[in-house]
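pinging the channel bc i need a second pair of eyes. not urgent but kinda urgent?? the chain im working w is below, pasted from the shared doc
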Amino acid sequence: MPAPPLIRIVDASLGSDAQVRVVVSRVSDPDKLQRAWSSSGATIDQVGDRIHAITTVEALARAAGRSLDRDEAMLIDRGLRDAVSAWTGPTPGLKARGRPLPTDHRPLVMGIINITPDSFADGGSIYPDGHPGKAIDAARALVAEGADVIDVGGESTRPGAEPVAADVELSRVIPIVRALVSDGVCVSIDTRKAAVAEQALAEGASIVNDVGGASEPDLLAVTAKAGAVYVLMHTRGTPQDMAGQVEYEDVVAEVYEFLVDGLARCDEAGVDPEQIVVDPGIGFAKTAEQSLTLLRATAQFRGLGRPVLVGASRKSFMRSVGAETPTDRLPGSLATAAVTTAAGAAFLRVHDVASTVAAARTAHAIATGETAWNPINR
């Protein structure tokens, strides 16, 4: 069965009744739609099978009705209205296994704890020496600085990193998950493995941060069974080979379409659609320029109707703006947090929590006029 038509909002800042900038793809006859649409006075440019236009909802609906069959035209009309509503409306809130995550009020800060000997950001400073005490102390410090969620990972996913066996990964993460859950902290498990996610969820983790792009059905099944929040991230290949998989004709379009398809896979696996967060995967099978392009497009991913997670902290794309090492990248990380907060990001996955809270709180206040930054319930 062919995929339904796909509508991506590029800009709808003036609201649903005004003109919007939109990209339409996956229609049965794009040439026919373009001809009918052009007669409405819309500004149109066709690139491959994607139609870029400045239009109104009504103009697109009329063109689809004249050029496509009734069912497809109705899907386009509904898809565009839903996308505009998602763009202009509040970010959906979440419940992580009964715990409210109020992404509809402000961005949530996800503090990173990487329990690996080859972490790109800290060089393995909290592992293996002093494990698990050092990692637990580091996580508690992030919570004290204002982290709403702690993301615990036991396998490096930096480009070129070698895979880790599930039993090794479990030995790294489970003591930290157990300790943080006992503190009442909302814990996310950062993994590609169903066995690791299952055990972390059994210990009380509330979020599965899947850096494998919904490629493992067993991981989706484990998440669905637990009723956990699921983070759907765009990636290609594996950490070992993703650096060679950076060819895109249109990186924003292709990442967006991947996430649409990933949402469908999640739905088929029984993951609650209202429990999914989307992540464009900054740095995963992306060049520096592509990562910057995706960050500029943060608002577009709101059109998927799900909270958007941005994980850009200390990443290597910042070399392109002069920040050579991870320790040089705090200013760039804070700038990214501020810009993406203003664009509607719902989660900021970061290493430097206190500084990020300050930057994001200010950016949120400027963008919305709201100065409150209430803690989530523990």
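so DSSP finds twelve helices and 14 strands in the chain. and The chain has a mean pLDDT of 93. — does that match what u expected or am i reading it wrong
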